[in-house]
Amino acid sequence: MSSEDPTTKELNNFVQTLLKQMSERFDEMQGTIVSRIDDMGKRIDDIEKSVTELMNDLGFSDEENEKQK
């Protein structure tokens, strides 16, 4: 079985190429997803900071919030 027929070789090459393309696309998508998660985390941090500043401007403090719980 050392000699494969041309159809088998073509199929093997096709599958290898397809797997390589899929792997590259997966890596690209993974990077995009991680980047978006990082961006969302930064946005959430900014929102938390803004809410805290607004609460402080309105006279609320963390100690008052703890007492109310």
Automatic annotation (TrEMBL):
GO terms for molecular function: transcription corepressor activity. GO terms for biological process: cellular heat acclimation. Belongs to the HSBP1 family. It comes from the Eukaryota. One of its GO terms (cellular component) is cytosol. It holds the Pfam family HSBP1. This is Heat shock factor-binding protein 1. It comes from Paramecium pentaurelia.
